[in-house]
Amino acid sequence: MLLSKTMQGHLTALMTILIWGTTFIATKILLLEFKPIEILFFRFTLGYITLWILFPRCFAWQGFKHEFMFLCAGLCGVTCYFLCENIALTYTTASNVGIITNLVPIFTAILAIFFIKSEKPGGNFYLGCLIAIIGVGLISFNGKFVLSINPLGDLLAVFACLFWACYSILTKKCSNDGYHIILLTRRFFFYGLILMLPALYLFNFEWKLSRFTHPANLFNILFLGVGASAICFVSWNYAVKLVGAVKISIYIYLIPILTIIAAILILNEPFTWITAVGSLLTLCGVILSEGKIKLIK
């Protein structure tokens, strides 16, 4: 039985999130020997090379207007989002960042009202978002109900959230022009890497490729570069094209649940009743936002 394009989009988004939900483990291991900017640059360089291997076809210049949109997508989704998120974690707590960055669907919905008129969300979406945010909050705090406020770190996390929402909207608008999804994603990566170069100097980037002789480092950078970057960005952009930026963005709420499961299985972290309640609320929020249950017309 053939699946509808909408169902294909949802399944693709779910598979993407399954991978993205475990990337924190690979990043955590790499942070023992790498700076955040080094992980970011190596990750997306490897992803860019992988996309060339997967689809070795040149992507001609598409005109200033279109190339400017590609550049903005690379700036928002590759350079700014990951830089803001990584730097935010050095100034504020992971709980704060986890809660703030999971507001992406709200930002995406607000931007869609102005830039993608066909994707205006209904009342169910906002109610589902509210429930999911409460669930994410419980998961992030996990029993530690002390919110450590740091204006700079929290503000950077808010900017990260906004940048990913912008990336989702730009991806949707670019994909509407019929470009091949791998070529489009590769162009995003190219501009993202180019715009990342000034940050290499500012954050004292070091090559030290000998670090990849350690199997753990090599495996984890391959996982991040090939799987979480090249393949997942293509699959995410494909899902956005089929379903829409607003509806697909709600899957981001599933990441905290997946990271908790991975932490329990791999890092032997405890599973509390607060985590269980938060996970249930997050799932209910996703289902409600997707319109599976109608509470508000």
TrEMBL record:
It holds the Pfam family EamA. It comes from the Bacteria. This is Permease of the drug/metabolite transporter (DMT) superfamily. Residues 8-140, 152-288 form the EamA domain. It is found in: Cell membrane. It comes from Frischella perrara. One of its GO terms (cellular component) is plasma membrane. The chain crosses the membrane at residues 12-31, 37-56, 68-91, 97-116, 123-141, 147-167, 188-205, 217-238, 250-267, 273-291. InterPro entries: AA-Vitamin_Transporters, EamA_dom, EmrE-like. It is a multi-pass membrane protein. SUPFAM superfamilies: Multidrug resistance efflux transporter EmrE (SSF103481). Its main location: membrane. Keywords: Cell membrane, Membrane, Transmembrane, Transmembrane helix. The keyword Membrane applies.
